[in-house]
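re: that chain from earlier
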Amino acid sequence: MTKSRLFTRPHARTATRVLGAISLLVIGGVHYQQYHYDFYSSIPTIGPLFLLNAISGIALGLFLIIPFRPKLGRSDRLLDQFAALSGIGVAAGGLAGLLVSEHTPLFGFMEHGYRFAIVLAITADSAAIVLLALFLVFARAQRATRPHHHRPDWQHTHGAQLQPDRTGARPGL
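^ sequence. v structure.
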């Protein structure tokens, strides 16, 4: 299979979107677990950020995995791409915050060690970034390979020049 055929395959686009969505759901779940059951909710600034990351990860993950929105054509694809880009931001922000807090205090809080929740968060954040970035690449490649409908130039339509309408605007502009 050639590289160009791989990028235009709808299965690859769907797989990266769904797997990226699952990664976002894991990110949301880990942050909620840490917020609620590991008592990060009591840490000033960090607690609300964990809750925000949990809500964002779950909401974006559900948006990308559940086909509940109406089929809006191009708008539907743009919403998926915007959600994927937002998911990359959530994952990258969480990963950056975690890595910073491992080496220096972040808002007065510092993580110590790599317990299971931290390893799972790093893995899910990394997977979400890679998978959703691939989804965006596949979506862009598919758009680039679609045939474009050529509209004739307004000055050369069937050999005759089109005249401006009453407002002075020329057709096709």
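The CA atoms of residues 9 and 77 lie 15 Å apart.
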